[in-house]
Design goal:
405 residues; mainly alpha; Growth Hormone, Chain: A; MFS; transmembrane helix
Length: 405
């Protein structure tokens, strides 16, 4: 593509915004749609979990294909699958049809989101923070408008209207996928070696800093998915309308939008460690405090504050993975990140569904909060250990005897 790197990053970022607009429009209303159609808590958990089931196993193979196959073709495959899923959502009138729609959507969105992440990290590493900040800005715009549009449309015209909007956005993404060309081409396409992909994945897991980055991403997606999928059901029990629920979820994205402008500054000023500790401490508060009695105002304040923290965590994990890997490892690295993310989106609804069916929804929030608190402490400790090793290696001066050898 005959454009400079800045323009290229802007095109990818706008495309990312379209993707997240589509995803955020329907993700919060799927649980409400299923709930209003008589699905049990356990069935809702299965419907939400199936979205991530196949992508969990496909993330690494598809990530490996990025280095051996045309990125644009993979993007087109994903965009077409999203279009098909839109049609299935529109005609879904049963538990099984919704399961199929969720399955196709999950696989299609895996392709699209993985390719966009790889594309935005191509180019000069020095400008990564700025490009990722722009990318995250448009991501936040999509996440801001999606829940609001989905809530208003489903309240005013019914759930089919929200599914139709999703379909229109998917068609736009498909058009973009044919116009978009990657600056970095694979000069020689070769048959993918899936065994080697898993070997490379194993090698990456020896990098403690990379593993910590994967855990950070997993925790963030776990919290976000709980906010997008089960918090709407809880707010519905408080007699909040779909429009109000969509508006409150958009508050989180609005807070995220504010933080994108200062993200590069925060990285330079505070560094990774302080940002990680502070952002995770506030992020998990959502799960501890959400089940308490709320009105519109208090729920909005809680979502706003925790939204800021989660907004820092998302680009932070992208930056960490980019710094911890070589360019030729990015496909598999981001495939592993997506595998962890889809793992969060698979486990999250199953855990919430199971606990809610046995006890009650509020109890599920607290159980998950304790689990993620412990996991956050572990991830931060791993990152600190990785940093200590890196600093010790950089400071090490070999003895004269060692130099002679």
């Amino acid at each position: 593509m005959l454009v400079n790197e800045k323009t290229w990053a802007l095109i990818i970022s706008i495309s990312c915004g379209l993707y997240w607009l589509a995803h955020s429009t329907i993700r919060p209303i799927i649980s409400l749609y299923a709930n209003n159609n008589g699905a049990t808590d356990w069935e809702i958990g299965i419907i939400l979990g199936i979205y991530a089931f196949f992508p969990f196993f496909l993330a690494i193979p598809i990530g490996g294909l990025v280095s051996t196959f045309d990125k644009n073709k993979l993007l087109q495959i994903g965009a077409w699958l999203m279009v098909v899923s839109a049609g299935l959502y529109i005609i879904s009138n049963s538990f099984w049809m919704l399961l199929i729609a969720q399955t196709v959507a999950g696989i299609g969105q895996l392709f699209v989101w993985l390719i966009f992440q790889v594309m935005i990290t191509e180019g000069k590493s020095k400008s990564n923070h700025t490009r990722i900040a722009t990318f995250s800005l448009y991501m936040a715009l999509g996440q801001l408008l999606g829940p609001l549009l989905g809530g208003v449309l489903s309240d005013t015209f019914g759930y089919s209207a929200a599914f139709m909007l999703y379909g229109v956005i998917c068609i736009l993404l498909t058009v973009v996928s044919y116009l978009l060309k990657s600056d970095i081409k694979v000069t020689e396409y070769k048959k993918p070696d899936f065994l080697e992909m898993y070997k490379e994945s194993a090698r990456l897991l020896k990098n403690l800093g990379f593993v910590a980055a994967l855990l950070f991403s997993f925790i963030v997606l776990f919290i976000i998915d709980a906010r997008m999928s089960f918090l709407p059901i809880y707010m519905e029990t408080l007699s909040f309308s779909n429009t109000v629920i969509g508006l409150l979820l958009s508050v989180a994205s609005f807070s995220a939008l504010l933080i994108k402008f200062i993200y590069p500054y925060l990285i330079k000023r505070l560094g990774y460690m302080k940002l990680l500790i502070g952002s995770f401490s506030f992020s998990i508060l959502l799960l501890y405090l959400a089940p308490l009695p709320h009105n519109y105002f208090t729920m909005g304040i809680l979502i706003f504050i925790t939204g800021i923290a989660l907004a820092i965590n998302q680009p932070l994990s992208l930056s960490l993975i980019s710094e911890q890997t070589r360019e030729d490892q990015r496909g598999i690295a981001f495939g592993m990140r997506l595998m962890g993310n889809r793992g969060a989106q698979l486990v999250d609804p199953l855990v919430f569904g199971a606990i809610s069916s046995i006890f009650y929804l509020e109890f599920a929030f607290w159980i998950v909060a304790v689990f993620l608190t412990l996991l956050s402490v572990l991830a931060i400790a791993m990152f600190a250990a990785a940093n200590s090793r890196k600093e010790a290696k950089a400071a090490y001066v070999p003895s004269k005897k060692e130099q002679e050898v």
